[in-house]
Amino acid sequence: RLPSGAVVHFLCSHPTPPAFDGPEQRNKRRNYDEIRFWGDYLSQRGYIVDDLANEGGLERGEHFVIMGDLNADPVDPGWEENPMRDELLSHPRLGPDPKPTSDIAIEGLDPRDTATWGKRVDYVLPSRTLRVVRTGIWRPEAQDVGSCPSDHFPVWAEIDVPSP
Questions:
Q1: Distances (CA, A) of 51 to 26, 55, 84
Q2: What pTM was estimated for this model as a whole?
Q3: Nearest Cα to 67, choosing from 15, 117, 19, 5?
Q4: pLDDT along the chain (164 residues), means of 10
Q5: What are phi and psi of 74, to 5 degrees?
Q6: CB burial class (10 A; 0-12, 13-18, 19+) of residue 79?
Q7: Which of 91, 123, 132, 142 has CA 20 to 30 A from 37's CA?
Q8: How far is CA 101 from the centre of its chain?
Q9: Do 43 and 98 form a contact (C-beta atoms < 8 A)?
Q10: How many Å apart are CA 110 and CA 76, to the nearest integer?
């Protein structure tokens, strides 16, 4: 609950990377299902049951932001399935993909890459009920990349939340 009285739900996750896999492709399938869960949660699928035995996910009209290291690139998913494109970014309750970029150029990386290994895998995805003011990817200067605590760059968004 914000000082204005508005409520924003933060739906955060860190799905399994769709890599380091065996022939059964268990990690790829798990990544797909973990991302698909958010689409099912927003669609209020009956298989989702909370601790009070209430079925379904987030009520329609609620403000939310899906965020996290989802380990899936919407353009190059790394296998034949594409959970970001097919299950999440196309969901009708999400606003337009904010597609953050970085002004810091690093050789071998696209301005939209959020990981040092050249993919967009980190997200801040607001609901249609919120307005994105601006977004970005925080990157250090190229010479400082090796001293970063992670192989991912933080993604941020400034969001306007309407008063209730």
A1: 28, 10, 28
A2: 0.93
A3: 15
A4: 97 93 92 96 96 94 97 88 92 96 93 95 98 95 74 96 94
A5: -70, -20
A6: middle
A7: 132
A8: 14
A9: no
A10: 13
Contact 153, 114 (CB under 8 A): yes
Q: Are 152 and 122 in contact (CB under 8 A)?
A: yes
Integer Cα distance of 120 and 154 in angstroms: 11
Tokens, residue 122: 């980190």
Q: Are 10 and 64 in contact (CB under 8 A)?
A: yes
Instruction: Report the length, in residues, of the chain.
Output: 164
- As given in the structure block, the two tokens for residue 30 are 């798990």
- What is the token pair recorded at 43? 């669609």
